[in-house]
Design goal:
- With about 250 residues, the chain is of the alpha+beta class.
- About 30% of the residues lie in helices and about 25% in strands.
- It contains five helices and nine strands.
- Strands 3, 4, 5, 6, 7, 8 and 9 form a seven-stranded mixed beta sheet that branches. Strands 1-2 form a two-stranded antiparallel ribbon.
- Strand 3 and strand 4 form a beta hairpin.
- The chain is globular.
- The termini are far apart.
Amino acid sequence: MRKLPEIMLSIEKIVVEQCNNSKYIRPFRLSYVQDGKSKLWDLMKSHDSVAIIIHHIERRSLLFVRQFRPAIYFNRVYAGGEQEVPPVSTAIDGDPRLGLTVELCAGIVDKGKPLAEIAAEEVQEECGFNVSASDLERVSTFRTGVGTTGSMQTIFYAKVTEAMRLSKGGGNPAEGEYIETVEVPISQLYDFILDESIPKPTGCAFGVSWFLKEKLRPSFVEVMRQNYLQIAVVSSGISLFAMLTAVGICSLRK
């Protein structure tokens, strides 16, 4: 697949800090007994989420979002050990581009609204298209972070055109979001999900795979046309075989 366009980042002074009273994650521990044996498991409570497969039908492409993810940056840059947490005030120095991911347009469920409405708002905020909640197709709901959070993510499918564009997107400035829309042609999607040089979450690969299976199926007309061509070829072959057989028989009679 072709290389994604470069993005200019102004990220600096990346330093480890103490995490107290987070709005997004709350760690805790469960104890339980399994087959008579006491066990402990460390968990985190986090928000459920929605994600949207955005199909630009005029440009024959899917739209994704690219953004800096500190967790990805930390795990790609910090070499202090798999389970080691660096001390507070430790500077984490590296190329900020190592923290870039390409994902489905998505957002957390932190409002008392139907999931489809939250998804429609995310499409407008992050990618700039006016999509009605009633026009979204629900794809599936599954669990994420099964070893730590067990949160639910619901995926929707949306079709957009340039007539639906309200802005260039980019996220919600009030929430400090810096998001870039990335377009991948349908012809390059399979290479995209297998490209390990582009960090992406599992849900992104699932969404692309679903799209390739469910939305690129040949239409009834295409199937009939292909079958007709196959029948025509077979029929032509039979006719040619019959003609050659008849010529051979005539030659033997002579």
